[in-house]
Design a protein that fits this description.
Chain A is an all-alpha fold. Chain A has 20 helices and 4 strands. Chain A has one domain. Chain B is mostly helical. Classes of the chains: A mainly alpha, B mainly alpha. Chains A and B meet through helix 4, helix 5 and helix 8 of A and helix 5 and helix 7 of B.
Chain lengths: 478, 224
């Protein structure tokens, strides 16, 4: 019962409970959202430090594992959550969302992600996933007086429950045919004996359930509607950290217990990756709403990141991890810019609203341009390195088709990212936006610097990702 | 032998009633079929020797969840026949996809024996089902058990955030305010002349404030 492994999660949950208590017992007449947000950011930072200090090993009755991989994923997820929370600071205030529960739910969701990253047992996987998802369902619907928000929450909830059902069915089949819930025992059972078809069916259902959370094609239908309907601060969160956690699960399950089935799931992941990249780039062309554009963009990005898993080796996993890091950073920055699009108190999501931003607000336009160029994969920026790594990993594993499709779709994708830049710099200026809040500018600045100067932080990120990938793959063998 | 027979009876009714949940035209019937399905699943659990799970299934799902479903179905005025209008249009596509999936499942599982491995019987410890569960849940799986608690807490926070509205017009009882009131704050003794009444005038106590006397809901005003 080595409970010290889970100290970051325990501390984060306790901090969340304390924040909740302060909000509930506080003066009813005032809004505690600001205080709760500060407390939540502080507790996330504290949990992040604890993650870095946490020891490695398997504990808590064999259901919880902490290794370099878990630490990397947790740090990226916590970073994404902090950035999203900072984005929400001002946008929630202006949108009239004064619930102190907002940051508290984000904290619980992040705790769920950390449990997901540390799962060593199918039950841990499911409970972590549900903790993360439940909080997200509520967050999507939190602007309850707006029809779009309620619709987004309900859609996400109904489809998410369906995906959970599929996942549970798959987990039950895997359990039934391998005889254990522990990853290590499942891996041993699979390596020892013949692989039964029931196990394969279970594996397919597990992949379907997890891919739904990634919003990869063909389980992406909810993404544009939910991204568009949910409050901007929630979308910023939804598009970043949860994807990292879902990837953590997918990588851990596929390369760990189901590693023996690599020949079976490789094709599955390849198909999902190709479909996501193609749909993400083609469907985004026709979008006029920037949040929907970001939804299709995230579908495409998930396709690229899946490419590394399809490679199924250490280089591929490293590539996926670096890709996720760059994705979270530029995604948070892009949403900080989107949140800043407010005119006379009304949130603007039309791409046309950006017209002439280059002359009205050069700093914001500069930031947005950096994120768009980075997402398109233009060389010195962060997005390029992620794409380069996954392409190299795919080619080295002989997945030429995957790499080829990826290159073609990035060219198509560049078209719609650059269209946003064109609107900002070459169209007739529209009316000016409201003054930006300092918190929003800070997020955009931090993400912008990390995206533009990724060359400078390249070495430590790459080293951490490689260490994480090595620890994960060594765990499956030994 | 008799156990096997009962297994198939329960399983057949379970599958049939689960199908009827989807197919029933009347939503109330669908919920009743759902309850039947729960009962049969409980029967299957009993056969498997998991009497605790069987009872929990009946108490929680039949006793609480299904009854809640019935309430919701009856209280919400949903025209289910309207919701089914698209069914005819999409039925062929749905059926085709379902058939393909089913064929694939059959093809995959064709080589499969119904019970491939005889599961090793767990060592009998002489403890009851619930005692065994308690021993595992509160020791080995304490982390997961507590995590489930947090999941429920999140669901509860969600329900409150999404539904609670502080209504100004609601008539709440504030006991502290009631205790702090004196008769002199609210009562005025009047001595009208016999047969004349108060002539419709309203006497106010010196300590009377409009804040203490909240406006009555509109519904009551219209009836009076």
């Amino acid at each position: 019962m080595n409970w010290t492994l889970a100290v970051p999660e325990l501390v984060l949950v306790l901090c969340g409970l304390a924040t909740l208590t302060i909000g509930v017992l506080g003066d009813k007449a005032k809004s505690h959202a600001g205080l709760a947000t500060w407390l939540s950011i502080a507790s996330l930072l504290f949990a992040g430090v604890l993650v870095l200090l946490s020891p490695s090993g398997i504990g808590l009755g064999g259901v919880f594992i902490n290794d370099a991989f878990a630490r990397f994923m947790k740090i990226v997820a916590i970073g994404g959550a902090i950035l999203a929370m900072a984005v929400g600071f001002d946008s929630n205030r202006r949108a009239g969302l004064r619930h102190f529960e907002f940051p508290v739910l984000m904290v619980f969701s992040t705790a769920g992600m950390m449990v997901m990253a540390s799962s060593a047992n199918l039950m841990t996987l499911y409970i972590g996933l549900e903790l993360q998802s439940f909080a997200l369902y509520v967050l999507c619907a939190i602007d309850r007086d707006r029809l779009g928000s309620s619709e987004a929450g309900l859609k996400y909830f109904v489809l998410g429950s369906l995906a959970s059902g599929l996942l549970l069915y798959g987990l039950s089949l895997v359990y039934g045919f391998s005889g254990s819930l522990d990853y290590a025992a499942i891996a041993t059972a699979l390596h020892a004996g013949a692989i039964s078809p029931g196990l394969l069916v279970g594996m397919v259902f597990v992949v379907v359930g997890l891919v739904f959370k990634l919003s990869a094609v063909p389980f992406h239908m909810w993404t544009p509607d939910v991204y568009e309907g949910a409050p901007a601060s929630v979308t910023a969160f939804l598009a970043g950290a949860p994807k990292v956690a879902a990837f953590a699960l997918l990588i851990r399950v596929l390369l760990g217990p189901l590693g023996a089935l690599a020949h079976q799931w490789q094709l599955l992941i390849e198909i999902v990756a190709v479909c996501s990249m193609v749909l993400g780039s083609l469907a985004a062309i026709a979008q006029t709403d920037i949040k929907r554009l970001m939804a299709y963009s995230s579908i495409g990005h998930m396709g690229y990141a899946l490419m590394g898993i399809a490679a199924g080796n250490e280089a591929g996993t490293t590539a996926t991890l670096v890709y996720l890091f760059t994705y979270v950073v530029m995604n948070a920055g892009a949403f900080a810019c989107i949140v800043a699009m407010r005119r006379r108190g009304e949130a603007q999501t039309d791409i046309a609203a950006l017209a002439g931003l280059g002359r009205r607000d050069p700093a914001l336009a500069m930031g947005m341009a950096i994120f768009m160029f980075s997402m398109a994969g233009v060389p010195p920026l962060a997005g390029f390195f992620g794409k380069l790594l996954v392409f190299v990993a795919a080619v080295k594993s002989g997945l030429w088709v995957l790499a080829g499709v990826g290159i073609v779709t990035s060219v198509i994708g560049a078209f719609y990212y650059l269209r946003v830049v064109r609107v900002m710099y070459f169209d007739t200026p529209a009316e000016a936006f409201d003054a930006r809040a300092r918190s929003t500018s800070a997020v955009a600045l931090v993400s912008g610097l990390a995206t533009a100067g990724f060359v400078l932080i390249w070495a430590p990120v790459m080293a951490a990702a490689a260490l994480a990938a090595r620890s994960l793959l060594a765990g499956t063998v030994g | 032998m008799i156990v096997t027979a009962f297994f198939y009876i329960f399983a057949a009714i379970l599958v049939a009633s689960a199908g009827m949940v989807v197919a029933a035209r009347n939503p109330v019937h669908a919920v009743l079929f759902l309850i039947l399905a729960f009962f049969n699943a409980a029967g299957l659990f009993l056969i498997a020797g998991a009497e605790f799970l069987a009872m929990i299934l009946v108490i929680v799902y039949v006793g609480a969840v299904a009854v809640l479903f019935l309430f919701v179905v009856m209280m919400l005025d949903i025209r289910f026949d309207q919701m089914r209008e698209g069914l005819q249009r999409y039925a062929p596509i749905g059926a085709a996809v379902g058939l393909v999936l089913f064929a694939e499942l059959v093809a995959t599982l064709a080589g499969l024996k119904i019970a491939p491995v005889e599961a090793a019987a767990p060592a009998a410890s002489g403890l009851t089902n619930s005692a065994e569960l308690g021993l595992v849940i509160y020791t080995r799986y304490i982390f997961l058990f507590q995590a489930c608690g947090i999941v429920l807490l999140v669901a509860m926070i969600g329900a409150i955030v999404l539904t609670l509205r502080e209504r100004v017009s609601s008539r709440k009882q504030d006991i502290a305010v009631q205790h702090a009131r004196h008769p002199a704050d609210t009562l005025v003794m009047a001595d009208p002349v016999a047969g004349s009444g108060m002539d419709g005038q309203i006497l106010r106590a010196p300590g009377w404030t409009p804040a203490l006397d909240k406006p009555a809901p509109a519904r009551l005003e219209t009836t009076s």
